[in-house]
Amino acid sequence: MNLQEHFDATIERDQRIEPRDWMPEGYRKTMIRQVAQHAHSEIIGMQPEGDWITRAPSLRRKAILLAKVQDEAGHGLYLYSAAETLGADRTDLTERLIEGRQKYSSIFNYPTLTFADVGVIGWLVDGAAICNQVPLCRSSYGPYARAMIRICKEESFHQRQGYELLMTMMSGTQEQRDMVQDATNRWWWPSLMMFGPPDAESTNTAQSMAWKIKRHTNDELRQRFVDMSVPQAEKLGVTLPDPDLRWNPERGHYDFGQIDWDHFKEVVSGNGPCNKIRIERRRKAHEDGQWVRDAAAAYAAKHKEAVA
Amino acid sequence: MNLQEHFDATIERDQRIEPRDWMPEGYRKTMIRQVAQHAHSEIIGMQPEGDWITRAPSLRRKAILLAKVQDEAGHGLYLYSAAETLGADRTDLTERLIEGRQKYSSIFNYPTLTFADVGVIGWLVDGAAICNQVPLCRSSYGPYARAMIRICKEESFHQRQGYELLMTMMSGTQEQRDMVQDATNRWWWPSLMMFGPPDAESTNTAQSMAWKIKRHTNDELRQRFVDMSVPQAEKLGVTLPDPDLRWNPERGHYDFGQIDWDHFKEVVSGNGPCNKIRIERRRKAHEDGQWVRDAAAAYAAKHKEAVA
Amino acid sequence: AAELARSCLWLGDDALIMSHRLQEWVAAAPELEDEVALANIGLDLLGQARLLLARAAKADPALVPAVNQSDEDALAFFRAAEDFHNVRLVELAGGDFAFSMARLLVFSTWRLALFQRLVDSPDQVLTAIAAKGVKELTYHRDYAARWVVRLGDGTDLSHERMQAGLDEVWPYVDELFDGENEDDKALREEFDAVMAQVITAGALKQPYLRPVPTAGRHTEHLEPLLAEMQSVARAHPDATW
Amino acid sequence: AAELARSCLWLGDDALIMSHRLQEWVAAAPELEDEVALANIGLDLLGQARLLLARAAKADPALVPAVNQSDEDALAFFRAAEDFHNVRLVELAGGDFAFSMARLLVFSTWRLALFQRLVDSPDQVLTAIAAKGVKELTYHRDYAARWVVRLGDGTDLSHERMQAGLDEVWPYVDELFDGENEDDKALREEFDAVMAQVITAGALKQPYLRPVPTAGRHTEHLEPLLAEMQSVARAHPDATW
């Protein structure tokens, strides 16, 4: 059995590819891109919520939010490590991010305008992320699958916290309820876009499904998310901003309105409300930290010499 | 009559020395230092109050404060121009300031902690400045004397506005009254120090009096300020923080307590509460603006060439 | 009256927030002359904001939050971000001197063209505000234009920064011109003509950047601005100043 | 009880404000490992603040502003700057990573020594807070010390910045040790010994800078910090979150 056959058989048997295993270059490249984009998303995703830590209106919510953003940094760390098992380099990946050569989830290019956004991001954005990510816990690439197991566990915790914040706000003042509804209006459609373009237009899906690094199509996952979210919205007492949203007993699913894919493409291609600000901030942190990382490297080198 | 005699005679007759007149080097140097320090004080003095413009609690007060700080920038401008008539260079003077080689009034090394500080600075700090500056309208150096006439007019306007803010606050809530009293407690003694060390220890006074660039001693001016401020404090309803302050019918003046000159020397020598922050901020503005000034110079040069 | 109130409120909010961003240059400008000029422009706009907010409140008292403050202060200090109606252009935070001059040029060119039309408003108060404003805005525009030209045609570094500043501002231009009728088109043409002239004089390139899509009425920059601006007023809601 | 309340309030305020300054590093730290560590330290201190403020409120309910909020939130979000009792060290704004590590080293070394004594407090709640805090602060101190050493003995640039950071922090050290009795002196000695060790390991110079004189209880940095921290809470005084 040659290397390719061995690889194919491993995939076929639903076993995992590990860092030392031979793998086709296409698989390696695709995995690096997938894992890096996921890592970038965690890191960029710290910004829209992180901005509210210093302004959180209660100490308990401040602690919850700070812990959540810390988890996101932690997720970024595992994921960059998983990418490194494929031969990638963290600094190189960061540079690809800030030079716009690698993407991150477009959802983080929307602004957070009130504290209700923190709750809605937990509910809808983390909810959509979980729908996307649960199947990835069975990704054929071992380190990524294991990272996803841990990440999914923490994400569902974040989702519950977000939803709980919204429940509290909905039982508060009228202003708070208005904030929740407004945030829901702004985040609903972008959340649906998190599952990517419709299957008919998705180019990577077939190969990724064959390699078992993707296990459901975009439209399947999107439908699952809608079906899950509608009863949650009802329980919360907010209206989802889609007049076409209704239960379809024949399909056994909720029908929903047309997604504005032109808008989606605009945001993905760099022209969303906050693309520039997010990347600039990441670039600034990276550049401002250069002298610190240089110092750490210099110290480590000196120390090694001294020991040797 | 030689140059020196001509100069002496001009001074003697209470006439003004003008830029084209011959003057002794000592006079020139002393005047440059005096005018530059005054200019620096106006510019550094923009910071402690300027910080409250964006936080001013009413639009009217915001406008008044912004106009006042603008006036200070304007005063800085006239004064640097007056220094330039003596052969000094504005950029060079700015560099002396940010390198700590020239001083500015130590009063601006104290923090502004509440909006009441804006009022108390107007009342006490501008009040003390006016006591110091009114005699300078008769300075023997013409451009400085003329600048001082304009500046004093504007300063008394500022002083009235500051006092009026305090009157309004004193008729407001208890919290506002507490803020005014607290600010008065913090600014009273530093204001008394604005007149400089006691006459017995003041080194420059004699020569400056002879040259008529100074017309009253530090202690005379300080007494005038105290006599003026006590009834104002009574009218306002605040207590000046000096248990020894009382009317002395024999002297026909208010007696007041011992000034902590050790503290004064600390602040003058760079170790006040805000010395570092003030100079750093000025340095940063100067350095951040370098590329803009360079561009203006380059544009002017090109334009001149094009015309020629 | 509701229509008048709405116009005054929108114009007032633009001036108030733009003035705040200019106030941030205090003790930070490149030259003393610019300290004076920027404070002056900030003061003019603050003055416009006060008159416009007061007019809006008078035309539609329902707009004014129920607090124990004057109309202008109630509107400035006791509204939440979502109740402000300024354009996003004036909210944008940070940015260097080149960005600020590009924004001021765009803002004052647009606003001057608007005010020139408001001079014929049926409301006499608004007419008077506009007439005064036209003079002020002409000066603001000329100040900004002079710097855009000098920076554009100054050093290599300043040219690069000026172009970057212009590019940063440009995606927020379309939002200023949302009308569809003949006069709205004429307004845009006037604006484009002034911009083209300044851009050419500054040896700069006309940006062709697409507008930034809206997502909610504001950017992330407004809430922190208001937190700062309103902090003292809100800490003492019963105080008079 | 008043004495206990006072101690808890002071220690709680220190932790709350220091935590805020660490929160400002979110999405701005030099490495992801530091993002995680700084958030972690910020969380520990926030946790200490919550327990201490609650304890202070219980020991002396008169401290708590009369608003419809929990004790900890009433104290954190509805007090004015002049009612906060934190040391000035934790207020200082801006500053680069070297400054922040110097401050964290000073703060956690001092606080660890304090907490080691509080473990024997007669109040059982405070004892428990202190026991937990000792573990946390030991980690904070070690984290900061490692960076001070690495930056001090790293590159020429990092050495220069680390020394500057230390020099910037030093004038605020004396204020931490205002007691006169034997134990206060022992505390200072402990502190000095730790600092000397780290400073030597980092090839740095012991600063001999004079303390910054006080002028009022706080620096100019606290008011803007609170304006930001309290903005949402104060905009919605009747809300629950």
From TrEMBL, chains A, B:
It comes from the Bacteria. InterPro entries: Aromatic_CoA_ox/epox, Ferritin-like, Ferritin-like_SF, PaaA, PaaA_PaaC. It comes from Kibdelosporangium persicum. This is Phenylacetic acid degradation protein PaaA. SUPFAM superfamilies: Ferritin-like. The lineage of its organism: Bacteria, Bacillati, Actinomycetota, Actinomycetes, Pseudonocardiales. It holds the Pfam family PaaA_PaaC. Signal peptide: none annotated.
